[in-house]
Amino acid sequence: MEESSESPLVLVHRPPTLAYMDDHLSRNFRLLNAHLSPDPLPLFLSRHAASVTAFVNIGRLKIDAELLSHLPSLQLLVCTSVGTDHVDLAECKRRGIAVTNAGDAFSDDVADCAVGLLLSVLRRIPAGDRYVRSGNWSKPGQFQLGIKTKRYIVVGYRESVDKDENYLMNLVSGKRVGIIGLGSIGSRIAKRLEPFGCIISYNSRTQKQSIPYRYYSDVLSLAADNDVLVLCCSLTDQTRHVVNREVMESLGKEGVIINVGRGGLIDEEEMVKCLVEGVIGGAGLDVFEKEPQVPEELFGMDNVVLSPHAAVATPGALESVAEVAIANLKAFFSNQPLVSPVRLG
Amino acid sequence: MEESSESPLVLVHRPPTLAYMDDHLSRNFRLLNAHLSPDPLPLFLSRHAASVTAFVNIGRLKIDAELLSHLPSLQLLVCTSVGTDHVDLAECKRRGIAVTNAGDAFSDDVADCAVGLLLSVLRRIPAGDRYVRSGNWSKPGQFQLGIKTKRYIVVGYRESVDKDENYLMNLVSGKRVGIIGLGSIGSRIAKRLEPFGCIISYNSRTQKQSIPYRYYSDVLSLAADNDVLVLCCSLTDQTRHVVNREVMESLGKEGVIINVGRGGLIDEEEMVKCLVEGVIGGAGLDVFEKEPQVPEELFGMDNVVLSPHAAVATPGALESVAEVAIANLKAFFSNQPLVSPVRLG
């Protein structure tokens, strides 16, 4: 650990268990570890951080105007997530504080998670896993290839062909998938789904040039024309509750929602109602509005797959995000362009 | 339902619940429904099936020499599965009975299932789903992004970087995937995994021409050079227990096995030991040696995903296999080449 006084000073705050960046940071900078102080954070910052120009915020500590007011010299805020909805970007802009995020470090992981959730919902993988673990598959008298629920035959052949019966375990091939947010994550999801025979379209702020997928300028039409909606855009004032009751009604009773963005992109209360009422057909959710609180109504549903905000939780991704954070700090201290700046509106 | 005496006669046997082909069959043929008789099958066949030339076996009824001896005029056996390990193919060859299977009808479904299981094991999707449903994620005092097991941090960030600690939740990108059996299913799995950044190689009876993937003539070397083994070959005398203890030791402690072929491809007893002992890292299994019996040791493992032989259980696939079966029967009765003949060795 070199902590020479020549190294620039960097303020760090992290949850106790997120130690993955400690080595990287201490090798390159002098650190002011706010999370190690017993003092309340505002007090600690007022006392020790007046001259701090760079702040690495590991995790999801809310960065609002009040907290920023204790950092009068701050010029750079390094975030370790892709989304920066926990940061008051308007205040950062007003103050001239640059903000960086995880850039592409997580993109492959999040795309893998989204496709994994999509397959898990359509093919009922966790429901089938529960069924086998329950021991019911091998019980005498049960049809060996069937699980039935109220509305679906979850795994196994249909016992009777009732055309009005709704079911979802189905070919992934041919599914129309509408992606909301075709950035670095969304485009990786599209690329992965193409060889499954999925038909991709998307919504984003502006139409992308030289992208072969059909563009929808509004989410309602996107939902109407697709079987699956995948949410992987930023959470902003414009995208909060972008999936509301009307969009879910438009998606329809066999429609599936996959959310690897932020919980606030969906009106969660309405989504629970839509799932209970069969307005939509299923959901695969890595994020929730009040996580780690998850609506308990979802716990009994076989057409829903729940994931504890784990899309980025791979060792490879943590290594990558540490590299991106260090690269941003080094660029900042040597007056080079930042590696992954966040647009401040 | 036209059952004119002009229509050819077809013998049918199916489990009670697999009615999906009834309409297709009765529209085209006169049917001798063996499964509707209260008589034991051999007795029924001896009494009524002496002149039968075509037999549709829906499901997995064992077709051995003894059963075939009651069908002296049989020329065509139509199976509705891809694998025909339940049929004595040597006896069919000796008797000059042609055998057909499901052809490509299930290939997309099985490939989707294989990739779904692979993502589910590597990204611990069912384990994460169990964790959220248990309510533990939101319990105060628990780290909100972590689930720890004995050997793995299943979902969430690693608490400490212990290089000797074994873990599997990881990037799918860059994983080396060895496919055993690069037929219509295996090649679809390869195609799907390419955009995830997986590196594909394969083993099959003979090297395929104009295939870019590296070929291994033996499974032991394939296992040694790969992170994941995917089994999607036929079960034959040559492939029974193709994955034995030696192969699993070669695959190694972070290695994962995905099986969408037949349970008998793996020495299941040894596989359970290898999972218990940490010789391999995980498994995603749609098939089992004595299904629906599944070794109970697997029920408590978070690095294992269990599926009740559901790879083909989609309505789309059932429609497709009915079409293939009918097409084979029509071809047979009009002396045209069969659509999906099985090679009889």
TrEMBL record, chains A, B:
Record's keyword terms, sorted: Glycolate pathway, NAD, NADP, Oxidoreductase, Photorespiration, Pyruvate
D-isomer specific 2-hydroxyacid dehydrogenase catalytic domain segment(s): 49-342
UniProt KW NADP keyword: yes
GO terms classed as biological process: oxidative photosynthetic carbon pathway
NADP keyword on record: yes
GO molecular function annotation: glyoxylate reductase (NADPH) activity; hydroxypyruvate reductase [NAD(P)H] activity; NAD binding
A Pfam family of this chain: 2-Hacid_dh_C
CDD domains: HPPR
InterPro entries reported in the protein's UniProt record: D-isomer_2-hydroxyacid_DH, D-isomer_2_OHA_DH_cat_dom, D-isomer_DH_NAD-bd, NAD(P)-bd_dom_sf
D-isomer specific 2-hydroxyacid dehydrogenase NAD-binding domain boundaries: 115-311
SUPFAM superfamilies on file: Formate/glycerate dehydrogenase catalytic domain-like, NAD(P)-binding Rossmann-fold domains
Family, similarity comment: Belongs to the D-isomer specific 2-hydroxyacid dehydrogenase family. GyaR subfamily.
Protein's name according to its UniProt entry: Uncharacterized protein
